[in-house]
């Protein structure tokens, strides 16, 4: 049997990734991630398939990486933390994700909730994400190319909404599309002083919790092909 260079490279990544993946999971634990389901899903989700091949060897470092179109795949810790926050009150059926990007957060979510509705303003990024997730057999995701400032009204309300780009203010449409009892996790603020917010919709009001400082690419208006 003969191997192509390609196969050997894939195999190489496969072999180191088991060890390096374990190291990443341990690091997430050390940094306060306690949700075992989230940790398990992140252990088994191949993050190296979501970045450019040239960066695949860095995929299990706890760092954001470029994914093209001036965007980044979020740092694993922030993916774990936001997912843990979203799920902290129990399982969710419908979740809206704003900012599909490379689809990594989408893949993690899809394994933990009933259905994910994922919107992205850059069409080419979303198409690639969609192909990847189909190859990985992730089926419970619907995609829409649109401006996430508007949410996805036709399929609202959502028990969870997660925004993976930093907004100057909380988009009104997202507040409106949140179910009663639903949870919205969103980075808000000017570029260099964003805070992660958890907003819970109660019957007659929205309860805001301000969490840690974060740094995300901006939530921009409009769409791009
Ligand atoms: N969760 C993604 C994060 C990508 S970065 C990942 O880990 O890959 C943030 C993403 O939000 C980018 O892809 C960017 O294009 C997208 N984005 C920014 N503004 C948006 C908007 N108004 N509506 C939808 N997506 C938006």
| Terminal CA distance | 44 Å
Number of helices: 6
Going by CATH, the homologous superfamily would be Vaccinia Virus protein VP39
**What overall form do the CA principal axes indicate?**
globular
CATH class division: Alpha Beta
Structural class: alpha/beta
Q: What do we call the CATH topology?
A: Rossmann fold
Largest sheet: 7 strands, mixed
Average pLDDT over all residues:
93
The low-confidence parts are none
- How do the strands line up in the largest sheet? 5-4-3-6-7-8-9
C-alpha-based Rg, rounded: 17 Å
Strand content: 25-35%
- What compounds are bound to the protein? S-adenosyl-L-homocysteine
Order of helices and strands: HHEEHEHEHEEHEEE
Please report the total strand number as a whole number.
9
The CATH architecture classification is 3-Layer(aba) Sandwich
> How many structural units, i.e. domains?
1
- Helix percentage: 25-40%
How would you describe this protein?
- The protein has 225 residues and is of the alpha/beta class.
- 32% of the residues lie in helices and 25% in strands.
- The chain has a single domain, classed as Rossmann fold (3-Layer(aba) Sandwich).
- It contains six helices and nine strands.
- The strands form two sheets. A seven-stranded mixed β-sheet has the order 5-4-3-6-7-8-9. A two-stranded antiparallel sheet has the order 1-2.
- The longest helix is centred in the N-terminal third of the chain and has 26 residues, at 5-30.
- The structure holds S-adenosyl-L-homocysteine.
- Residues 67, 71-74, 98-99, 101-102, 104-105, 119-122, 125, 147-149, 164-165, 217, 219-220 line the site of S-adenosyl-L-homocysteine.
- The site of S-adenosyl-L-homocysteine has 24 residues, from strand 2, helix 4 and strand 4.
